[in-house]
Design brief:
single chain, two-stranded antiparallel ribbon, 385 residues
Length: 385
């Protein structure tokens, strides 16, 4: 197990009615905030009213930035940067899913940068300072409510890049599972696929002695698999929504990655898909994951797949051929996604075959669980087409 430092600086208020804690939390950092959100659904389901009511009753000034897109754009970051500088913003309150939260993280550090915010995401400039960020989560998926990073898309360059720094971890996050009741079946499925992928990226690691972390991973996978479809069919099932929400946070807040993290595989491949074609992130992950598993299955990895089969899917393994068990686990993984009505082919979500090579050529992941060259990535893309 690798050395690590564990420091979670996010205070989480979890459960029904916890929005009442938001004004007091904001007042610890600011009297004037930037309120960020997406397409306006928070105004239909009452979350917006609850937030601004708390602001008004506690003397908190706010300026709004709405219209943040799925696969958040650097154009929104630039707009937020301008507002923060011109309006004297002291903190950011992000209300929404991972896209809004990721965009708000980028704005938080861009507020202290005089150049183009895209520089911070390409590594041209370091992330050194950031406004305090508080979040109100409305979608269980990315785990941005407790992690240090975010992903931003630049449509001008067809790039979707992740970046981060410890100072971008939210100070406070409000996690009320009832705020996810209005999430559609499609987005619930995509969010669940994202959660599962986050865990798998850590579970399949070159580190072989992180027994505890692997057992955590398996528990999170079983929870997401169990409750994903239930939440789709029973959107106001509090048990399902609550378990998915907490699983989403634990999947990517460093707990399972400490001591065994390595470069991710499926996420970088999907980022190219959504950078070029703006598809739903979780759907792309679900399409790619089984094909990636089949591609990396070998004598060197089969034992991990057998462990996965036994501990996640309860597949019998004693006395059986390892590769047979592994392929059954891969099939079970694919079935998880098809059972949630997620497409299985890239062609179904608008990906063009003539773009596969261009996207693959942008990737080379030598430090992944199994190193991936551009040729490997292209083979995986083609297997999904």
């Amino acid at each position: 197990m690798y050395n690590f430092t564990h420091d979670i600086g996010t205070i989480v208020h979890f459960g029904k009615g916890q929005i009442e804690k938001l004004p007091g939390a904001v007042k610890q950092y600011a009297n004037k905030v930037l309120l960020t959100y997406g397409g306006g659904s928070i105004k239909k389901n009452g979350i917006y009213d609850a937030v601004v009511k708390g602001f008004k009753e506690n003397g908190i000034e706010w300026v709004e930035l709405s219209g943040i897109d799925p696969n958040p754009r650097v154009t929104s970051v630039r707009e937020g940067q301008k507002i923060c500088k011109e309006q004297g913003i002291e903190a950011i309150v992000a209300v929404g899913g991972g896209s809004t939260l990721d965009c708000s993280k980028a704005i938080a550090c861009a507020a202290f940068y005089d150049g183009d915010p895209w520089d911070l995401w390409t590594g041209k400039a370091p992330i050194q300072k950031a406004l305090p960020l508080l979040t109100v989560l409305t979608l269980s998926a990315t785990g941005s409510e407790m992690d240090t990073g975010g992903v931003i898309t630049n449509l001008e360059t067809n790039d979707k890049l992740g970046a981060g720094a410890p100072i971008l971890r939210p100070k406070v996050s409000i996690l009320d599972p009832t705020y996810t009741y209005s999430v559609s079946k499609y987005q619930t499925a995509a969010g669940t696929a994202d959660i599962i992928s986050h865990v798998l990226e850590v579970y399949f690691s070159r580190v072989t002695d992180a027994y505890l972390q692997d057992r955590f991973c398996e528990a999170l996978l079983k929870t997401a698999i169990h409750y994903g479809r239930i939440a789709m069919d029973e959107p106001e099932n509090y048990e399902a929504r609550a378990n998915l929400m907490w699983t989403s946070s634990l999947a990517i807040n460093d707990m399972i990655a400490n001591g065994k993290a390595c470069a991710w595989s499926v996420h970088p491949m999907e980022h190219e898909l959504s950078a070029f074609f703006d598809i739903t992130h979780g759907v792309g992950l679900a399409i790619l994951t089984p094909a990636w598993m089949e591609h990396i299955l070998s004598d060197a990895t089969v034992d991990k797949f057998v462990e996965y089969a036994k501990n996640v899917f309860d597949i019998p393994v004693e006395g059986r051929d390892k590769f047979e068990v592994a392929k059954e686990a891969i099939a079970a993984t694919k079935k998880v996604f098809t059972d949630m009505d997620i497409p299985t082919r890239l062609s179904e979500v608008g990906i063009k075959e003539d773009a596969l090579e261009t996207m693959a050529n942008k990737l080379n992941i030598p430090d992944a669980y199994v190193p991936l060259t551009s040729k490997d990535v292209l083979e995986i893309y083609k297997a999904c087409f």
